[in-house]
Amino acid sequence: MKHKPSFAKTSRPVPPWILMLTVFVTGNVIMMLEVVGTRVVGPFFGVGIYVWCALITVALLALSAGYWLGGRWADAKRRPEFLFLAILVAAVFTFLIPVMRNPLLNFAGQFGVRGGVLLGSALLFGAPLFLLGVVSPYATKLFTDQFEKIGSRVGLLYSVSTLGSFVGTVAMGFYLIPNFRISSILLALGLALLFMPLVYFLLVRARKWPLFALAVIVGVGALLFFPRAPRTQQLNDYVKVIYKTTSFYGEIKVVQAGEQRVLLVDGVTQSEEKIKNHQVTPAYIIDMNNLISRYHPTAGKALVIGLGGGNIVHALLEKNFTVDVVEIDKKIIFVATQYFGVDPKQANITLEDGRRFVRKCKTKYDVVVLNTFSGESTPSHMLTREFFKEVNGVLNDSGISVLNFISYVQGPHRFAAAAVQATLRAENDWCQVYFRESKHNFSNILYVAGRGGVVPEPLEDTVWEELKKTATIISGQDDAVVCTDDYNPVDFLNRVVYRRWRQLVIDSLGSDVLLN
After folding, report:
1. H-type helices in 258-353, by residue range?
2. Residue 457 has what DSSP assignment?
3. Where are the alpha helices (DSSP H) in 379-493?
4. Are 434 and 471 in contact (CB under 8 A)?
5. Cβ distance 134 to 66 under 8 Å?
6. By 3-state DSSP, what share of the chain in percent is helix, strand and coil, each rounded to 5?
């Protein structure tokens, strides 16, 4: 008589509901760690394509190793205690992420942006993701006892795990990151992982009380000693963080540096002004304001896409422009009004994506200011020929668009700036470029573009004479890429600038401002 083959049974089987809850929770935490990882390493390396690719790479490699070794360990041991001990250790590594973040990212930073973000992500997230990768094959072994049921049981476990990942991704992206500190989120993820060993050692293996006690000690210790950031942080004698929050779009900090107040988003300077009187200090804002006055000498109606700290808004209001502002991040609006003196009664502020606003806008403007940055980069969908065409659709016939971009105008790293100019020229009759710094350095590049066939002749005065000295020509513009929604390589072309800009912040304010 033939017997159907079956797997050897454990001495104390785990109730199916515990296994399904375990794979649900661990699947949830895996995706949450991947998403929140961008906010952990983003302030130091930016939240660009390199960060996302590094985190996905680390997650795939760590999970792959966990799946493989987890399967081998399940065949060799098939002891449930080992599974829940692995989850307990993963919880410990999760608790350690905010503790070890600063020294590990500082160490990784010496290997450049690409090498550093890959190494930093691996050091912070590799261990917990590897241990969580062990869960699926080990739980599958514990859950299946007959060959003829293996397909349905494996499918059930993977379905529950994937459902947990779905819930985790939605919860993290749409609720947790915009509303809670990253350190608090990591504490919650560690406690969620710790919950499963507690359940198992309490309900199934009560005689394993030392392991239950260990899980309790880890949880209580995390709650008592987990680092909590103060509302304000004096980083050194010169720099103090007076406000910090996280939004859908990045980590926001307001920093007081001497008599200056600085807005940082993902560790990159967005606005600066004097604390006492909100006087604008960046030279490019002064130049931008003067260029608008010269190319459009009469006050009119202006649209500013990208609020930041409101530097250009203040300047336009002083020139008696009627100003509409579009800003995608409601927490930036809060910061601008609370810390940078922006008055919503004077400027009409709309919470929306700039391109979406322009696409459905019926108002005509004399000036459109494009000053949008996500960390160190301009959102790619706002640097395309299609978008510039949409901008022209909301301009009066004599209207101008003014774009702020940061790059080089000469040398081997000029191609991003050249691509922006070529794209603007593709949809405008003329485009002038102004660049105040040495042509061998990167800095703010101001593009002024319009239609009508002839560049308006500004009034001659001392300010204009000074501005004309900053007019420049970007090398290689005739052969530059015209960026479209289908193909836009600006982020790649400008990658060196992103790295050096972040280093400039570190040199001026110190690395602690990125990590605290």
Report:
1. 283-295, 311-318, 330-339
2. -
3. 385-393, 415-427, 462-468, 490-493
4. yes
5. yes
6. 55, 15, 25
Q: Which two tokens stand for residue 510?
A: 């110190």
What is the per-residue DSSP string for 264-280? EETTEEEEEEETTT--B
The CA distance from 188 to 483, in Å, is 43
Using only the alpha carbons of the chain, give its radius of gyration.
27
Q: Looking at the whole model, is its pTM more than 0.85?
A: no
pLDDT given at position 466:
77
Instruction: Tell me what percent of the residues of the chain surpass a pLDDT of 90.
Output: 35
Inter-residue contact 43 to 266 (CB < 8 Å): yes
How far apart, in Å, are the Cα atoms of 459 and each of 292, 297, 467? 12, 8, 12
Amino acid at 201: F
Burial class (CB in 10 A: 0-12, 13-18, 19+), 479: exposed
Scanning 296-361, the segments in alpha helix (DSSP H) are: 311-318, 330-339, 354-360
Burial 266-280 (b: 16+ CB within 10 A, else e): bbbbbbbbeeeebeb
What span, in angstroms and rounded, lies between the C-alpha atoms of 24 and 19?
9
Q: Which of 282, 303, 447, 292 is nearest to 378 (CA)?
A: 447
Q: Taking residues 202-216, what's their average pLDDT? A: 62
324: closest CA among 312, 332, 334?
312
Joined tokens for residue 86: 């692995």
Q: Which of 512, 408, 416, 411 is nearest to 44 (CA)?
A: 512
What's the chain's average pLDDT?
83
What are the CA-CA distances from residue 296 to residues 4, 332, 395, 399 (Å)? 87, 29, 12, 8
Could you give the CA distance from residue 287 to residue 219 in angstroms, rounded to a whole number? 55
**pLDDT tens profile 411-450:** 888 899 999 999 999 999 999 999 877 777 888 899 999 9
State how beta strands 239-247 and 233-234 pair. Answer: antiparallel
Amino acid making up residue 57 = T
Q: Of 173-182, 229-238, 302-311, 373-382, which one has max mean pLDDT? A: 302-311
Tokens representing 407 are 């790059």
For every residue of 124-174, DSSP letters joined together read HHHHHHHHHHTHHHHHHHHH--BGGGHHHHHHHHHHHHHHHHHHHHHHIII
Candidates 360, 358, 377; CA nearest to 369 is 358
Per-residue pLDDT at 455 exceeds 80:
no
